[in-house]
Amino acid sequence: MNPSDEYRPGLEGVVATETAISFLDVDHEEIVIRGYDLIALARHLDYLSVAHLLIEGCLPSPGENASFTKGVLGHQTWEGPIENVLRNLAPDGHLMDFLRTGLSCLATYDPDLDDHSTDATLRQALRLLGQIPMIVANSYHIKHQQPSILPDPELGYSANFLYMITGRKPTIQESQAFDQLLTVYSEHEMPNSTFAAIVIASTLTDLYGALVGATASLKGPLHGGANEAVMRMVLDMETIDQVEPWLLAKLAAKERIMGFGHRVYMHQPDPRAVLMKELFQQLVHTPEQENLFEMFTRGEMVMQREKGLYPNLDYYAAPVYYLLGIPIELYTPIFFAARSAGLIAHIREQYAHNRLFRPRVRYTGARHLQLD
Ligand code: CMC
Fold it and tell me: Measured between alpha carbons, how far is 341 from 232 in angstroms, rounded to an integer?
């Protein structure tokens, strides 16, 4: 076979692997997670139950839920010198780079680093689900030379994550909104970061290394970096009246508008964005927040009219983060923290059915050059 015959730039539409974890059923506007609809999971279950579903393959019984949760929460203390390592990073660094350094640091303290058995990777999963929120939340405080905030034993997993970020015990409405946000971000079939993770895992390197590669991928503005770009964009518009001229000027300059479009559902609604818009509306309590809601919906209307593009998850997740009082520079690391459940599930699946990724190229360079 001539491999170049099959070339599809960006692997658009290419089936790259088999998975029993998730599938974007675009025609039916459903994100299938191990047979369940992601939006229904987000509405009715909590993040850790969905993480169990992703990683263990089934919804937890009450007993399994208790031991999974205990296993995760048992890892929410600083391990080894990790806090000190983070305190020695450049204060201007991006928090995604703090996170990948934290993950690399965790790897060096894992005695089973090269063990790919289901027992070892489950233990690693529990450790990572506990440690990643701590690293994410506290990287912000560390970067700003503030003391760390450790979990409050009276709070649950998602409430604690939010508490470690803001230093304030969240209301029930805030905890539930944050939990739903984590759940809708938890898994999404084969985005660039998940692909990066399984490609890396296919060399049979360690799980942490595959996650570190995924952090680099997810940081990019065309992927996870879009959520913080969305919030900066809308704040830059300042008023409702500025939304339309701002967007039209950017479109006339052929610029990308962050938070719109998606490789898989380019011209269909992203079901996650629909849920986030609903949550955003529920969190609106003041006239300024109403104003912000109007700005976002005006932006959606302009992009639909001008380009036929729908908002993606990042568009409506950004104001949810904002109304929860989360600093903008944490939006992308929180996306990664939530997605770690899906990533770990895919890495474990790759180990279980491994075949090394090694594609070919269409060569466009010179041939038969002669040395003088
Ligand atoms: N703003 C303006 N035009 C757009 C946008 C956008 N955000 N997205 C797509 N288009 C246009 C693009 O210019 C092109 O138009 P034309 O055919 O007239 O040249 C057409 O839509 C097709 O675009 P494409 O570049 O072939 O599409 P793609 O599949 O390569 O891009 C994307 C997908 C997500 C990179 C792109 O939509 C984009 O850059 N969006 C903004 C960044 C963003 O919001 N990313 C988050 C994605 S969802 C969360 C996640 O998975 O991380």
Answer: 28
